[in-house]
């Protein structure tokens, strides 16, 4: 087993690995919940699943209408059965239909909306004639025609509300569609009763108007949530579902689910790669923008890695699968984003608690309103209207959407700018930071080697290429990038020695690529030794990473205090700090001391954002208030970080802070909007000043206002 570690402070590895394991608890099963609409549904779904033995966590995302479940022992069928017993429709997520350009739910709502509008306008024509003084016989005829139009229309158009309400009632549970359904049915039922008893008044137009405006609210809410597409949904949409598997008889089209590690796959021109794999064709040109944010084509040669989701921009090529299905980079990244979108920050937790208390309180309030108006006014019909208005107008949908809508929009916005947010609480913590500490090598600077070609002959280059491509350390990558294209030497037993370098066995004996002191040479930088030959120095220079100056200046303008904390020598840190105008510069700091330094800053009241890429940064990344790692970072650093930068530039780091601050501000705003709305709406409904129709309009407007406010995150630049 190859151990990858090339940073001197390897003492951080156990701690980093432990923290990384804690951080990456991606959901094992994701289920679609198409019928959930309110905060009461969230609590019921999560309680139902968490009560099952074997479920360690269950989190509902109301905006995306799905639940992420962490379980190692239960199947999706068992979870679906439990949710159906609890009154919820549930389906395993199928990426094949996750985003195929169609919107069946939206289309169904539009059809019902059109039918309700058509029926409402026709019934209103008869109502105008009746109000204008029609004779008794004409009035009764128009009432019967109105009933013939209204009753089928109400039963058909009210299905989204009736189905949801019935699912809740059959398991003795209440949701927000129960009072809505009650209001629609009561208006239609009372009208039909009046018609049968030759009454003067019928309210079919009110029943249809109520249904029509509730459907408008439901459809606009659906469109708003769909437009606030999550990054996880976008990533899942990149998956392909069939592939050209190479067999002895040529290429054969098979479902991707049938591919296994080791299979050879043909990638035609213009097609996305279905698996992670190793290139076995001489070369390939792909678009990797989904992962790096860079639109420039990427050229790969034999032996290089290609990843699921990349698009073939050149001639057809072949890959040998190294990861399929849930193990691909694309699926793992989508799972991490899904986990972040479903995470609870402090505002979400507050909203959840408020909604859980709020729902039963509202039902009691409506009951008291009915009793009060019935006793004081003596008009049961008016009392019933007031009670129904209270139930509708106080729907906590806005409260349940207040924070998740912002989080989902913010994470999607950041992903489109090249940031992978792994933790839902990261945005809240980033918004609180006032200090940013950078690692030097690999973060603010990247190593570059220009002398390798001149110093090594072709045979030595092949050995260096074989050793360098076995390591993810920035120095190894720099050496590999400087080498000309060619075949690597055949080596065995390649292993990376922590803090030293990488070594293996060739026909010439032991070959090593690493620090001069490890090679027994009299130079400090990296070098190559083959067998018993003297070590060859491979001098490296460091260049400023793209966007580093822009990032530091932008963060300083946002009020953050920049600093450098590095394990390198002071003589190497000082020129860089001077170039970037950074006063706080700490050199020669080991991994444990980096952790201690950040802890000392925290003890002094500072909220630190750490940006680092090495194994010796992993403990510090985990200890920081918030942490960021570039995509070139070692696995332990990426795992410990809250956010990963997917491209090679640091220029957008200030945008990260701006979006985080805007998300926190908008969450507070949404919470305030929901609270103020209910503070005003409840007394109005209790006073009998809001009919069920006006209550339906007000409820829809409140939810749409919260969603529209969340979408303002897209304006942050």
Can you put this structure into words, describing what you see?
Residues 27-91 form the HMA domain. It is found in: Cell membrane. The chain crosses the membrane at residues 109-132, 144-166, 178-196, 202-220, 354-376, 388-412, 671-687. Pfam families: E1-E2_ATPase, HMA, Hydrolase. By secondary structure, the protein is of the alpha+beta class. It has 5 domains: 26-92, Alpha-Beta Plaits (2-Layer Sandwich), CATH 3.30.70.100; 104-229 and 346-402 and 667-715, no CATH class; 236-340, Calcium-transporting ATPase, cytoplasmic transduction domain A, CATH 2.70.150; 419-445 and 544-646, Rossmann fold (3-Layer(aba) Sandwich), CATH 3.40.50.1000; 450-539, Calcium-transporting ATPase, cytoplasmic domain N (3-Layer(aba) Sandwich). Helices cover 50% and strands 17% of the residues. The chain has 26 helices and 27 strands. It has a 7-stranded mixed sheet with strand order 14-27-26-25-15-23-24, sandwiched between helices. The protein has a 6-stranded antiparallel sheet with strand order 6-5-7-13-8-11, with no helix packed on it. The longest helix is centred in the C-terminal third of the chain and has 34 residues, at 653-686. It is elongated.
List the helices and strands and how they pair.
Blueprint: H1 13-23, E1 29-32, H2 39-50, E2 55-61, E3 66-71, H3 76-85, E4 91-92, H4 104-131, H5 136-157, H6 159-169, H7 177-196, H8 204-227, H9 231-236, E5 242-247, E6 250-255, E7 264-267, E8 276-279, E9 283-287, H10 289-292, E10 298-301, E11 305-306, E12 311-312, E13 317-323, H11 329-342, H12 346-377, H13 380-393, H14 397-401, H15 404-416, E14 419-421, H16 426-432, E15 435-438, E16 445-448, H17 452-455, H18 458-468, H19 474-482, E17 492-497, E18 501-506, E19 509-515, E20 526-530, E21 536-537, E22 541-544, H20 548-557, E23 561-565, H21 570-580, E24 584-586, H22 591-603, E25 608-611, H23 618-623, E26 626-630, H24 635-640, E27 643-645, H25 653-686, H26 692-710
Parallel strand pairs: 15-23, 15-25, 23-24, 25-26, 26-27
Antiparallel strand pairs: 1-3, 1-4, 2-3, 5-6, 5-7, 7-13, 8-11, 8-13, 9-10, 9-12, 14-27, 16-22, 17-18, 18-19, 19-20, 20-21
Helix pairs in contact: 2-12, 4-5, 4-8, 5-7, 5-8, 6-7, 7-8, 7-13, 8-26, 11-15, 12-13, 12-25, 13-25, 13-26, 15-25, 15-26, 16-25, 18-19, 25-26
InterPro entries: ATPase_P-typ_cyto_dom_N, ATPase_P-typ_P_site, ATPase_P-typ_TM_dom_sf, ATPase_P-typ_transduc_dom_A_sf, ATPase_P-type_domA, HAD-like_sf, HAD_sf, Heavy-metal-associated_CS
Keywords: ATP-binding, Cell membrane, Hydrolase, Ion transport, Magnesium, Membrane, Metal-binding, Nucleotide-binding, Phosphoprotein, Translocase, Transmembrane, Transmembrane helix, Transport
EC number: 3.6.3.54
């Amino acid at each position: 087993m190859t151990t990858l570690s090339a940073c001197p402070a390897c003492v951080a590895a156990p701690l980093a690995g432990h923290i990384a394991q804690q951080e990456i608890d991606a959901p094992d099963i994701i289920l679609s919940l198409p019928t959930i609409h309110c905060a009461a549904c969230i609590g019921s779904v999560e309680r139902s699943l968490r009560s099952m033995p074997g479920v360690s966590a269950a989190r509902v995302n109301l905006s995306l209408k799905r639940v992420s479940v962490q379980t190692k022992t239960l199947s999706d069928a068992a979870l679906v059965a439990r949710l159906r017993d609890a009154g919820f429709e549930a389906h395993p997520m199928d990426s094949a239909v996750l985003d195929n350009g169609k919107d069946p739910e939206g289309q169904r709502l539009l059809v019902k909306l059109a039918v309700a509008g058509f029926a409402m306008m026709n019934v209103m024509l008869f109502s105008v004639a009746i109000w204008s003084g029609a004779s008794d016989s004409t009035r009764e005829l128009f009432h019967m025609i109105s009933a013939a139009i209204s009753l089928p229309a109400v039963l058909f158009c009210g299905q989204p509300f009736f189905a949801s309400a019935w699912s809740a009632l059959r398991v003795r549970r209440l949701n927000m569609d129960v009072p809505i359904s009650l209001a629609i049915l009561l208006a239609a039922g009372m009208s039909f009763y009046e018609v049968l008893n030759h009454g003067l008044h019928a309210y079919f137009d009110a029943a249809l108007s109520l249904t029509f405006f509730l459907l408008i609210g439901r459809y606009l809410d659906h469109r708003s949530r769909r437009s606030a597409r999550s990054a996880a949904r976008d990533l899942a949409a990149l998956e392909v579902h069939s592939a050209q598997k190479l067999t002895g008889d040529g290429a054969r089209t098979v479902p991707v689910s049938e591919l296994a590690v080791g299979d050879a796959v043909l990638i035609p021109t213009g097609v996305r790669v279905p698996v992670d794999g190793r290139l076995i064709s001489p070369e390939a040109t792909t678009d990797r923008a989904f992962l790096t944010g860079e639109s420039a084509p990427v050229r790969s040669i034999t032996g290089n890695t290609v990843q699921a989701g990349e698009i073939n921009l050149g001639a057809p090529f072949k890959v040998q699968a190294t990861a399929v299905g849930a193990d691909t980079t694309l699926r793992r990244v989508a799972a991490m984003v899904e986990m972040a979108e479903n995470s609870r920050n402090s505002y979400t937790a507050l909203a959840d608690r408020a909604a859980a208390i709020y729902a039963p309180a509202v039902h009691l309030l409506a009951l008291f309103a009915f009793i009060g108006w019935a006793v004081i006014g003596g008009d049961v019909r008016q009392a019933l209207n007031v009670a129904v208005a209270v139930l509708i107008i106080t729907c906590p949908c806005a409260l349940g959407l207040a924070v998740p809508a912002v989080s989902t929009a913010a994470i999607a916005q950041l992903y489109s700018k090249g940031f992978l947010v792994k933790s839902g609480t990261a945005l809240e913590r980033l918004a609180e930071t006032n200090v940013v500490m950078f690692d030097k090598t690999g973060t603010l600077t990247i190593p570059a080697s220009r002398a390798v070609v001149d110093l090594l002959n072709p045979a030595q280059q092949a050995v260096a290429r074989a050793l360098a491509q076995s390591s993810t350390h920035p120095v190894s990558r720099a050496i590999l990038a400087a080498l000309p294209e060619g075949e690597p030497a055949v080596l065995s037993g390649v292993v990376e020695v922590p803090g030293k370098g990488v070594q293996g066995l060739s026909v010439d004996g032991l070959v090593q690529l690493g620090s001069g002191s490890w090679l027994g040479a009299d130079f400090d930088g990296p070098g190559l030794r083959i067998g018993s030959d003297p070590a060859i120095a491979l001098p490296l220079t460091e260049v400023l990473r793209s966007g580093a100056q822009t990032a530091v200046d932008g963060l300083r303008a946002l009020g953050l205090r920049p600093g450098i904390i590095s394990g390198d020598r002071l003589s190497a840190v000082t020129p860089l700090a001077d170039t970037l105008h950074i006063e706080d510069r700490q050199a020669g700091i080991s991994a444990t001391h980096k952790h201690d330094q950040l802890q000392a800053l925290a003890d002094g009241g500072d909220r630190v954002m750490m940006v680092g890429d090495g194994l010796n940064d992993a403990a510090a990344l985990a200890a920081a208030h918030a942490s960021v790692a570039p995509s070139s970072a070692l696995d332990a650093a990426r795992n410990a970080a809250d956010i990963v930068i997917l491209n090679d530039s640091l220029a957008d780091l200030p945008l990260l802070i701006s979006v985080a601050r805007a998300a926190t501000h908008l969450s507070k705003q949404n919470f305030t909007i929901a609270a103020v709305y209910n503070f005003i709406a409840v007394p109005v409904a209790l006073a009998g000043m809001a009919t069920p129709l006006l209550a339906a309009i007000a409820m829809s407007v409140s939810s749409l206002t919260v969603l529209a406010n969340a979408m303002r995150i897209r304006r942050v630049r």
